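question for whoever is on the cluster today: can someone run the full assembly for these? two chains, 971 residues total. i dont have access anymore since they changed the login thing
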Amino acid sequence: MKRRTPLIVWLLVLLVCAVGVSRTRFTADLSAFLPSAPTEAQALLVDLLRDGVASRMLLIGIEGGDAGARKQASQALAGALRASPAFVAVSNGESIGTDKDQRWLFDHRYRLSPAVTPERFSVAGLHAAIAESIDLLASSAGLLLKPIIARDPTAETLQVIEHFSRYRDAPTQAGLWTSRDGARTLLLATTAASGADTDGQAAAIATLRATFARLTTGAGHENLRLLVSGPGVFAVNARATIKDEVARLSSTGAALILILLLLIYRSPTALLLGLAPVATGALAGICAVSLGFGQVHGITLGFGLPLLGEAVDYAIYYFIQRDGADAGRFWRTIRLGVLTSVFGFGALLVTGFPGLAQVGLFSMTGLVTAVLTTRYVLPALTPARFAIRDVSVLGRGLRWLMGRSRRVGLLPLVAGALAAATLYVHRDHLWHHELGALSPVPEADQQLDARLRQDLPAPDVRFLVVASAHDADTALARAEGLGKVLDRLAADGRIGGFDSPARFLPSRATQAARIAALPDADTLRTRLAAATADLPLRADKLGPFIDDVAAARHAPALTRASLDGTALALAVDAMLIHHDSTWRALMPVRAVDDAHPIDPRAVRAALEASGVPDAVFVDIKSESERLYAGYLHEARTAAGGGVLAILILLAIALRSPARLLRLALPLLATVLVVIGALSLAGERLTLLHLVGMLLVVAVGSNYALFFDAGEHGTDGPSLRTLASLVVANLTTLAGFGILALSSVPVLHAIGIVVGPGALLALVFSALMHPATGPRRT
Amino acid sequence: MSVRRLILIPLLFQIATAAAAATGWTVDRLMHTLAQNAGGTVHFTERKYLAILDTPVESTGTLVYRRPDHLERHALTPRPESMVLDGNALTLTRPSGSLHMDLRDYPDAAALIESIRSTLAGDRAALERNYLLTLSGSQHAWTLDLSPSDTRIAALVVRIRIEGHGGQIDTVSVLQADGDRSEMRITPIPAAGS
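^ ran it for u. tokens below:
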């Protein structure tokens, strides 16, 4: 009966977890590794990275073949994509849609033109405006004005077009967008799917590739190549890579561990039993993450599973040391080992990355479940006459190492000191300081992106003024208020200029004020007669103008829906975004030129003085650097806190500063040597390496504890214990080492630190074991 | 005056054609001569006769041409304004700010500008894409008439007449489909050389 209770509990737990796992949603999107952000500017930044129109831009290049073929392909591709519902806009430098846009601007000129004021429609105002238009007729711009002058003698259309043109201020080269060296034609496509919708992005990219293949294979243009880049491509590739690598690496790692165990145990029963704690732990871990976060990220599984390699270790320790004399001491050591690991992973829970927090929760739950399974279920499952092969031979290598401790026991400390010196020399180049360091986008892809971005007029916005409100109209009204401030800054030469969604979609109040400035038909007729008395443009030719003004006074107000079907809709959508219940009007601000950079303090001061509420000035570059620095700091604190917690735990358990020191020194040396070597190899450290170091301390302290526990014996740890440490170490090395091969930075960084770190921790702990003199059995 | 002109023009035209044939002054030779022109800066005075206005409007300034497709028009009167055309990129700078346009967005303006630019470049192929060419006169006083062959341009422009001597253009007159016309007189700037 007593033997059966744990089994029943175990089966129930398995059942519940299996149900939980079957309901779990697995994701592989990057957003879990975009930190949840603390400040308004940073929240905006993360929103923009996720949802902004920039995140929906695909940069497309066509190369190979001759110029004629590239041109044909560019035109055909643009035409086909424009017809596809997956894309809302496609540009390749060809002029399209502008007729419609100009028509729209012309039709709504009296609501859009900032020049429309009551003064402009007075006799003096009309006279000045019309005289200027007549001079304009003489100029080269006269061709633009002539066809419309009878309807628009004050040239409001040109006022509006000037703003529009500034927005699309983009260099075009003859015919189509072409790279500077002429080797590529270029296109810019905006997907209908949002940047956060990775499935939608994947579908759009697939459509693009299929369309290109269809257009080129038939036309004898097979030698043309398609280059695609942009946030959507990155997200889709990253997801595919993560899915692929997590599956490949963890199955390879698992296979390696299985083969290793089979080689050592030579018993399928032992193998199955050994996997029971791991499987239970993994199920419980997934279940816990699913409950705590609502979903499980692929990366969590990716390095959560090797972490459970530590859970394999418990079964190994159990089998190999089962027959040992002092079971009580064995379980105490294991308990302490689990606690140190739990403290280590606990630190991950408090980092700002939902992804890392998931890993922390997964590992904590998994390890505790695995050790409980080992402690209470394995003995119940193990057949009475079960015995595994004597593997103590594996322990001999370690024993030999321990025997060298008198002569080379200080070697780890010397290596650690050397590594520390290296790190000190490299201290300025140790850390990556950009958010991009965490990006799983391969270097080559980033370079392609930079190349296409240089050739294309893709928005590369660095400074933004942001007006926020709870509805679109208030956000637009605030943007208009801030626009006045920015106009003054531009007039003073502090900034070069800015864009605003309110230019194409003025707030209701502004539209109403402009319409109110228009006189009725009779008044206008009278004033026109007076205003044109001494001008060559006579009032009797301006009947269409009077009609248009009268019509404008009764036209409905412009809304976002009025823009549908024009390129202006895209411009407004790019600059007026909403997330949850907050609307934000984004106003990209340009510097005058490179020699006159924007002074953020001057802009902030001017914005503050304006009294417009909820105005923010964002320097995206420095903000994203600060964001990353914040996370780095947070991760340092968390990792430091984790290590400190482990040390305190050990200090309490060991109750001897000398023992603590002996246990901690090899770990310290290990971490220093691993990081020193990485830095010598030219690898820049990210916060993920920090997390790796934390794991080295957590895993390594387990080994150290066994050496310490063995100290009670006269002979150091028994050969059996040493053998179990070697096997456990090999499985950890296999599980994490394989991650080091990953191209996903998150996995690579953890693997490259923990794999070698675990091995070194064992060797250093053995070398620094205090046993005196060479003892061989 | 206009009646006299109406009678005179066909007459002159015939004589000129005959003269051109006689002297071997052909479109090819004109184009070749124009193509020798490296470019430079000249004065211009342009008058536009618009139906909607009671009196013509006049503007003056300088023109700058660099082979093969760079053209600048800097007006001094009635208001300072400059237009820079590089390839298809058109930049219009006025005191109120500058305006960037793609010439292809404005086919009517493009048709006019292209005719002048291609003539300056001596690019017969480009001219003949959009116009039928008729040359009259001699090398020392020639007249090149461009009649749009493209219906889209013909809807806007009836005829462009370019007069000159040697590799030098003296006047450019444009008659638009709506009856409006413009006449630009070009004179060299003595100090600036060619």
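summary bc i know u wont read the tokens: The mean pLDDT of chain A is 81. The longest strand of chain A covers residues 582-590.
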